[in-house]
Amino acid sequence: MRRTSIIIPTFNGLAMLEQAVDAIRRYTNVQETPYELIVVDNASTDGTGSWCVQQGIRLIALPANTGFPAACNRGLRLASGDNLLLLNNDVTVSGGWLSGMLEALQGIEGAGMVGPVSNYVSGRQKADHPFTSLADFHRAAAEVYAQQLEPQPIMRLVGFCMLFKRELYDRIGELDERFSPGHYEDDDYCLRARMHGFSLYMCPRVFVHHEGSASFKRDNPQAVTQLVERNRRLFQEKWQVDPAQFM
Protein backbone atom coordinates (compact mmCIF):
# COMPACT_ATOMS: atom_id res chain seq x y z
CA MET A 1 0.00 0.00 0.00
CA ARG A 2 1.30 3.46 -0.91
CA ARG A 3 2.55 5.57 1.98
CA THR A 4 2.68 9.33 2.52
CA SER A 5 5.58 11.11 4.20
CA ILE A 6 4.31 14.12 6.20
CA ILE A 7 7.12 16.62 6.71
CA ILE A 8 6.66 19.34 9.32
CA PRO A 9 9.33 22.05 9.69
CA THR A 10 9.18 23.83 13.05
CA PHE A 11 10.94 26.44 15.14
CA ASN A 12 10.02 27.15 18.77
CA GLY A 13 6.41 26.19 18.17
CA LEU A 14 5.99 23.15 20.41
CA ALA A 15 2.40 23.89 21.45
CA MET A 16 1.32 24.25 17.82
CA LEU A 17 3.28 21.16 16.82
CA GLU A 18 1.63 19.10 19.55
CA GLN A 19 -1.80 20.18 18.30
CA ALA A 20 -0.87 19.47 14.69
CA VAL A 21 0.46 15.99 15.43
CA ASP A 22 -2.49 15.14 17.69
CA ALA A 23 -4.91 16.03 14.89
CA ILE A 24 -2.96 14.00 12.33
CA ARG A 25 -3.02 10.95 14.59
CA ARG A 26 -6.66 11.43 15.52
CA TYR A 27 -8.05 12.11 12.06
CA THR A 28 -5.92 9.91 9.79
CA ASN A 29 -6.87 6.28 9.25
CA VAL A 30 -3.45 4.64 9.12
CA GLN A 31 -4.92 1.41 7.73
CA GLU A 32 -6.44 3.23 4.76
CA THR A 33 -3.78 5.91 4.32
CA PRO A 34 -0.44 4.79 5.81
CA TYR A 35 1.89 7.64 6.68
CA GLU A 36 5.13 8.54 8.40
CA LEU A 37 5.80 11.74 10.33
CA ILE A 38 9.06 13.63 9.95
CA VAL A 39 9.68 16.76 12.02
CA VAL A 40 12.53 19.03 10.97
CA ASP A 41 13.48 21.15 13.97
CA ASN A 42 15.18 24.44 13.14
CA ALA A 43 17.22 24.59 16.38
CA SER A 44 14.27 25.13 18.72
CA THR A 45 14.95 25.87 22.39
CA ASP A 46 11.48 24.96 23.70
CA GLY A 47 11.88 21.20 24.10
CA THR A 48 10.67 20.28 20.61
CA GLY A 49 13.42 17.72 20.04
CA SER A 50 12.84 15.89 23.32
CA TRP A 51 9.09 15.79 22.74
CA CYS A 52 9.53 14.31 19.26
CA VAL A 53 11.81 11.60 20.63
CA GLN A 54 9.28 10.78 23.36
CA GLN A 55 6.54 10.57 20.73
CA GLY A 56 8.54 8.26 18.49
CA ILE A 57 8.52 10.79 15.64
CA ARG A 58 11.35 10.77 13.12
CA LEU A 59 13.36 13.88 13.91
CA ILE A 60 15.91 15.93 12.04
CA ALA A 61 17.48 18.30 14.56
CA LEU A 62 19.29 21.11 12.77
CA PRO A 63 22.05 23.07 14.54
CA ALA A 64 20.74 26.44 13.33
CA ASN A 65 17.53 27.94 11.97
CA THR A 66 17.84 27.38 8.24
CA GLY A 67 14.36 28.64 7.31
CA PHE A 68 11.38 26.88 5.76
CA PRO A 69 12.66 25.83 2.29
CA ALA A 70 15.91 24.32 3.58
CA ALA A 71 14.11 22.50 6.40
CA CYS A 72 11.60 21.06 3.94
CA ASN A 73 14.43 19.87 1.72
CA ARG A 74 16.12 18.08 4.60
CA GLY A 75 12.86 16.30 5.37
CA LEU A 76 12.26 15.38 1.74
CA ARG A 77 15.69 13.76 1.54
CA LEU A 78 14.83 11.49 4.48
CA ALA A 79 11.27 10.70 3.36
CA SER A 80 10.48 7.18 2.19
CA GLY A 81 6.87 7.71 1.09
CA ASP A 82 5.38 7.33 -2.37
CA ASN A 83 3.68 10.68 -1.78
CA LEU A 84 5.18 13.69 -0.02
CA LEU A 85 3.34 16.28 2.05
CA LEU A 86 4.74 19.55 3.35
CA LEU A 87 2.75 20.76 6.37
CA ASN A 88 3.12 23.88 8.49
CA ASN A 89 3.29 23.31 12.24
CA ASP A 90 0.29 25.65 12.72
CA VAL A 91 -2.14 23.54 10.67
CA THR A 92 -4.86 21.40 12.28
CA VAL A 93 -6.37 18.74 10.04
CA SER A 94 -9.73 17.01 10.32
CA GLY A 95 -11.55 13.86 9.27
CA GLY A 96 -10.80 12.59 5.76
CA TRP A 97 -8.16 15.21 5.09
CA LEU A 98 -5.46 12.91 3.73
CA SER A 99 -7.71 10.39 1.99
CA GLY A 100 -9.59 13.26 0.33
CA MET A 101 -6.42 14.77 -1.10
CA LEU A 102 -4.96 11.39 -2.10
CA GLU A 103 -8.16 10.56 -3.96
CA ALA A 104 -7.62 13.62 -6.14
CA LEU A 105 -3.87 13.13 -6.51
CA GLN A 106 -4.14 9.48 -7.50
CA GLY A 107 -7.46 9.59 -9.31
CA ILE A 108 -6.98 12.49 -11.72
CA GLU A 109 -4.82 11.82 -14.75
CA GLY A 110 -1.85 14.16 -14.85
CA ALA A 111 -2.29 15.44 -11.31
CA GLY A 112 1.02 16.01 -9.58
CA MET A 113 0.17 18.22 -6.63
CA VAL A 114 -2.94 18.97 -4.56
CA GLY A 115 -3.88 21.15 -1.62
CA PRO A 116 -6.87 21.82 0.67
CA VAL A 117 -8.88 24.93 1.39
CA SER A 118 -8.50 26.83 4.64
CA ASN A 119 -9.63 29.71 6.79
CA TYR A 120 -6.28 31.51 6.46
CA VAL A 121 -4.56 31.42 3.07
CA SER A 122 -4.07 33.69 0.08
CA GLY A 123 -5.64 33.13 -3.31
CA ARG A 124 -8.37 30.71 -4.30
CA GLN A 125 -7.76 28.30 -1.41
CA LYS A 126 -9.36 30.73 1.03
CA ALA A 127 -12.74 29.29 2.07
CA ASP A 128 -15.48 30.90 4.11
CA HIS A 129 -16.72 28.12 6.38
CA PRO A 130 -17.51 29.87 9.69
CA PHE A 131 -16.59 28.31 13.02
CA THR A 132 -16.22 29.67 16.54
CA SER A 133 -13.74 27.30 18.17
CA LEU A 134 -11.42 24.43 17.31
CA ALA A 135 -14.15 21.93 18.17
CA ASP A 136 -16.56 23.86 15.95
CA PHE A 137 -13.96 23.81 13.18
CA HIS A 138 -14.10 20.00 13.14
CA ARG A 139 -17.90 20.21 12.79
CA ALA A 140 -17.55 22.64 9.87
CA ALA A 141 -14.83 20.51 8.25
CA ALA A 142 -16.98 17.37 8.50
CA GLU A 143 -19.92 19.16 6.88
CA VAL A 144 -17.72 20.40 4.03
CA TYR A 145 -16.20 16.96 3.50
CA ALA A 146 -19.63 15.37 3.25
CA GLN A 147 -20.53 17.65 0.32
CA GLN A 148 -18.32 15.63 -2.06
CA LEU A 149 -17.08 18.78 -3.79
CA GLU A 150 -15.04 18.07 -6.91
CA PRO A 151 -11.33 18.97 -7.16
CA GLN A 152 -10.63 22.12 -9.16
CA PRO A 153 -7.63 22.79 -11.38
CA ILE A 154 -5.48 25.62 -10.08
CA MET A 155 -2.26 27.33 -11.12
CA ARG A 156 -0.77 27.82 -7.67
CA LEU A 157 -1.00 26.08 -4.30
CA VAL A 158 0.19 27.54 -1.02
CA GLY A 159 2.82 25.52 0.81
CA PHE A 160 1.13 25.39 4.22
CA CYS A 161 -0.33 21.99 3.24
CA MET A 162 0.92 20.72 -0.10
CA LEU A 163 0.76 17.07 -1.21
CA PHE A 164 2.64 15.84 -4.27
CA LYS A 165 3.81 12.67 -5.94
CA ARG A 166 7.35 11.40 -5.51
CA GLU A 167 7.49 11.32 -9.30
CA LEU A 168 7.13 15.11 -9.26
CA TYR A 169 9.87 15.52 -6.66
CA ASP A 170 12.20 13.20 -8.57
CA ARG A 171 11.67 15.22 -11.72
CA ILE A 172 11.79 18.84 -10.54
CA GLY A 173 13.96 18.53 -7.42
CA GLU A 174 13.93 20.42 -4.16
CA LEU A 175 12.55 23.76 -3.04
CA ASP A 176 14.70 26.69 -4.11
CA GLU A 177 16.58 27.86 -1.02
CA ARG A 178 17.24 31.30 -2.47
CA PHE A 179 13.81 32.12 -1.01
CA SER A 180 14.89 31.34 2.57
CA PRO A 181 13.72 31.87 5.24
CA GLY A 182 10.39 31.70 3.41
CA HIS A 183 7.79 33.19 1.01
CA TYR A 184 7.45 32.42 -2.71
CA GLU A 185 9.31 29.10 -2.56
CA ASP A 186 5.88 27.45 -2.96
CA ASP A 187 4.97 29.68 -5.92
CA ASP A 188 8.27 28.72 -7.49
CA TYR A 189 7.69 25.01 -6.88
CA CYS A 190 4.22 25.13 -8.39
CA LEU A 191 5.45 26.93 -11.50
CA ARG A 192 8.23 24.38 -11.97
CA ALA A 193 5.72 21.55 -11.57
CA ARG A 194 3.48 22.97 -14.25
CA MET A 195 6.44 23.59 -16.55
CA HIS A 196 7.22 19.87 -16.29
CA GLY A 197 3.70 18.88 -17.29
CA PHE A 198 2.11 18.25 -13.89
CA SER A 199 -1.37 19.56 -13.10
CA LEU A 200 -2.29 21.16 -9.76
CA TYR A 201 -5.63 20.74 -8.04
CA MET A 202 -7.42 22.35 -5.11
CA CYS A 203 -9.61 20.04 -3.01
CA PRO A 204 -12.62 22.10 -1.83
CA ARG A 205 -13.99 19.24 0.28
CA VAL A 206 -10.83 19.18 2.46
CA PHE A 207 -10.98 22.06 4.93
CA VAL A 208 -8.05 22.49 7.34
CA HIS A 209 -7.47 25.04 10.07
CA HIS A 210 -4.47 27.32 9.59
CA GLU A 211 -3.33 29.63 12.36
CA GLY A 212 -1.55 31.70 9.74
CA SER A 213 1.94 33.20 9.54
CA ALA A 214 2.81 31.69 12.91
CA SER A 215 6.46 31.30 11.93
CA PHE A 216 6.79 34.98 11.21
CA LYS A 217 4.54 36.59 13.83
CA ARG A 218 7.42 37.04 16.27
CA ASP A 219 9.34 39.08 13.72
CA ASN A 220 9.18 42.80 13.15
CA PRO A 221 6.21 43.41 10.80
CA GLN A 222 8.31 45.78 8.71
CA ALA A 223 11.02 43.13 8.35
CA VAL A 224 8.41 40.59 7.22
CA THR A 225 7.09 43.02 4.61
CA GLN A 226 10.63 43.61 3.36
CA LEU A 227 11.23 39.86 3.16
CA VAL A 228 8.07 39.29 1.14
CA GLU A 229 8.98 42.08 -1.27
CA ARG A 230 12.55 40.81 -1.59
CA ASN A 231 11.40 37.30 -2.44
CA ARG A 232 8.80 38.59 -4.86
CA ARG A 233 11.61 40.38 -6.69
CA LEU A 234 13.71 37.20 -6.64
CA PHE A 235 10.82 35.29 -8.20
CA GLN A 236 10.38 37.94 -10.91
CA GLU A 237 14.10 37.99 -11.64
CA LYS A 238 14.19 34.20 -11.92
CA TRP A 239 11.14 33.76 -14.14
CA GLN A 240 10.49 37.19 -15.68
CA VAL A 241 6.84 36.97 -14.64
CA ASP A 242 4.75 38.50 -11.86
CA PRO A 243 3.63 35.74 -9.42
CA ALA A 244 0.38 37.65 -8.86
CA GLN A 245 -0.89 36.39 -12.21
CA PHE A 246 -1.11 32.88 -10.77
CA MET A 247 -3.22 33.81 -7.74
From TrEMBL:
GO MF entries: transferase activity
Domain Glycosyltransferase 2-like: 5-172
Matches recorded under Gene3D superfamilies: Spore Coat Polysaccharide Biosynthesis Protein SpsA, Chain A
Keyword line: Transferase
Signal peptide positions (record): none
Pfam families: Glycos_transf_2 (PF00535)
Coiled-coil annotated residue ranges, if any: none
Transmembrane segments: none
The protein, known as: GT2 family glycosyltransferase
Species of provenance: Paenibacillus phyllosphaerae
